[in-house]
Amino acid sequence: MLQKEEIQVKTVTAAMENEHVMVRIKVDNPLDRTLYAYANPRRVLYDNATGKLTLCLHDRDLPEDPGYIRDIGRPHIMPLEGKTETEIKLELPPVVHRLRTAAERAGGTLTEDLRIGEATEILVEVAHQDTPFYYDPKKSSARQFKEWGSNVARGSFKIPPLSPKADEPPAPKPKPKRTR
After folding, report:
1. Is residue 41 within 8 Å of 90, Cβ to Cβ?
2. Is residue 168 part of a domain?
């Protein structure tokens, strides 16, 4: 197993494509051998006030409490060839509806709209290892995911907003030119 972070998150770009937020993460593997990384977000956090989107491609924060019920699907793992840069592509909706806790609701709405299409900063955390993930039915899923994803590369990047803020009107369309 790797003893430290080996890969580097080089760039993150985001664009609106087909009404989705397409995030492209370029990861560099400087080693001579293939490494393996999570290729899907396991947790998406967004702060409407600051415009900061956090994409966690790891399960480090997953509770191991046996009473915690959650369908934990296996992560999608992709190879990162040695001495190359690999792109991890994520497709996200522009708005995510988060269930608010009872304390947050206090008689208010049940959900909160997280407008990730308005993000101006993206923090990416990518778990990686030198072997692919192999499921062991004798161990809990949460423990296996946390152990496998113990090495996490991070990168924070500023991006231009992809869509106008909810309280701003959309930009006017240019008038067509008349030709004679």
Report:
1. yes
2. no
Quick: pLDDT tens for 141-162: 888 888 888 899 999 999 988 8
Query: Does residue 174 belong to any structural domain of this protein?
Result: no
DSSP secondary structure letters along 8-67: EEEEEEEEEETTEEEEEEEEEE-SSS-EEEE-S-SEEEEETTTTEEEEEES-TT----TT
**In a domain? residue 175:** no
DSSP secondary structure code for residue 149 in this structure = T
Rounded-to-integer distance, Cα 128 and Cα 151, Å: 6
- Is the overall model pTM greater than 0.85, yes or no? no
Q: What percent of the chain has pLDDT over 70?
A: 82
169 falls within a domain: no
The count of structural domains within the chain is 1
Q: For the chain, what is the total number of helices (H) and then of strands (E)?
A: 2, 11
Give the separation between CA 94 and CA 146, rounded to whole angstroms: 29
Side by side, the strands of the sheet bearing 84-92 are 8-17, 20-29, 84-92
Per the CB < 8 A criterion, the answer to whether 117 and 67 are in contact is no
Domain that holds residue 99: 8-158
Beta bridge mates, 77: 38
